[in-house]
């Protein structure tokens, strides 16, 4: 964490590059500070969805708090204003809507940090070269989406990701092979343009080939809202409308979460300062009396080691 030190302009350039690549992240900015503090007003940092921090936002106590809150901001898609300081430092002076996080490190002083999510434009991959495929790509770009049109013979799983929406519109030309490639990418949405009968045949063939049923169940056939008999332009509108609806209702995020491995560590409380930290190697683990404790920084761990009984008793009373 925090080993990539950049100034504020470097952070903004890095943010622009991440957005260009379609990666979600949060941008944290120090809007106020009270000394002593290692941060400065206007300091910025990027926090990725995986919890990697790039830039500078504060020291050993502030940094894990900002990372934890930023990951929640990314997941929820809403900004958050944090006030970091010692317990009882602010009292009734805290404005409504501000999140107060106590930190025990006196060297951190106090910080006010604004964390905003940066969610890239939706990514749509349309596979095929029919008039409908061209129209769908055109419509998606007209509403600000990143849309790519790829001929069926050129498509591979590497052309999509878990953040992509994929529509297979190859009109029976290699549908089975293309859907198999698309399923392997585990996109947020995968739709096949065709009749239900054709879709059942494609999915049945892939099931016989050993493609897991839970992955095949996520393939939408036919893709798009059911508008009855329509022209190819109207089919493109129906598919885009379904994708917009799925994004608005959050079903795409739910699909991504269902298909993603649970990699985030459990949250525990530092017994010395009361901060919430991740139960992982980066949180200075220490085993005592058959139980593992985690700490926000080495200083808290040293305090615990000097007198474990004081903190174990304190923890048991809470």
Describe what this molecule looks like in 3D.
The chain is of the alpha/beta class and 318 residues long. It folds into 3 domains: 111 residues, no CATH class; 137 residues, Rossmann fold (3-Layer(aba) Sandwich); 51 residues, no CATH class. Helix content is 36%, strand content 22%. The protein contains 10 helices and 15 strands. The strands form 4 sheets. A 6-stranded mixed beta sheet has the order 3-2-1-6-4-5, sandwiched between helices. Strand 7, helix 3 and strand 8 form a beta-alpha-beta unit. The longest helix has 18 residues. About 2% of the residues have low confidence.
> Terminal Cα separation, in Å?
31 Å
- Count of discrete domains: 3
Coarse morphology: elongated
The number of distinct helices, counting runs of at least 4 residues, comes to 10
User: Do you know the CATH topology of the largest domain?
Assistant: Rossmann fold
Spatial strand sequence of the major β-sheet: 3-2-1-6-4-5
- How many beta strands in the DSSP annotation? 15
Strand residues, percent: 15-25%
């Amino acid at each position: 964490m925090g080993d990539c030190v950049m100034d504020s302009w470097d952070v903004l350039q890095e943010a622009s590059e991440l957005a260009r690549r379609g990666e979600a992240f949060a941008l944290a900015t120090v809007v106020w500070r009270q000394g002593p503090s290692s941060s400065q007003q206007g300091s910025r940092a990027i926090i990725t969805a995986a919890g990697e921090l790039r830039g500078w936002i504060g020291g050993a106590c502030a940094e894990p708090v900002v990372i934890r809150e930023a990951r929640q901001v990314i997941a929820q898609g809403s900004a958050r204003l944090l006030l970091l300081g010692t317990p009882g430092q602010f009292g009734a002076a805290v404005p409504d809507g501000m999140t107060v996080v106590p930190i025990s490190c006196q060297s951190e002083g106090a910080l006010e940090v604004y964390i905003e999510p940066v969610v890239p434009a939706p990514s749509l991959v349309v596979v095929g070269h029919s008039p409908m495929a061209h129209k769908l790509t055109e419509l998606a770009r007209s509403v600000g989406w990143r849309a790519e049109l790829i001929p069926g013979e050129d498509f591979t799983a590497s052309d999509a990701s878990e953040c992509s929406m994929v529509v297979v519109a190859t009109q029976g030309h290699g549908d089975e092979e293309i859907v198999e490639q698309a399923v392997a990418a585990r996109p947020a949405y995968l739709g096949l343009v065709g009749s239900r009968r054709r879709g059942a045949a494609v999915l049945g063939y892939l099931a016989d080939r050993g493609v897991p049923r839970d992955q095949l169940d996520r393939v939408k056939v036919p893709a798009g809202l059911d508008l009855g008999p329509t022209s190819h332009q109207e089919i493109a509108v129906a598919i885009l409308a379904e994708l917009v609806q799925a994004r608005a209702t959050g079903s795409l995020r739910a699909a991504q979460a269902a298909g993603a491995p649970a990699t985030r560590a459990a949250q525990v409380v530092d017994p010395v300062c009361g901060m919430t930290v991740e139960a992982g190697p980066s949180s200075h683990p220490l085993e005592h009396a058959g139980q593992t404790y985690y700490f926000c920084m080495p200083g808290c761990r040293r305090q615990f080691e000097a007198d474990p009984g004081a903190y174990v008793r304190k923890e048991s009373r809470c």
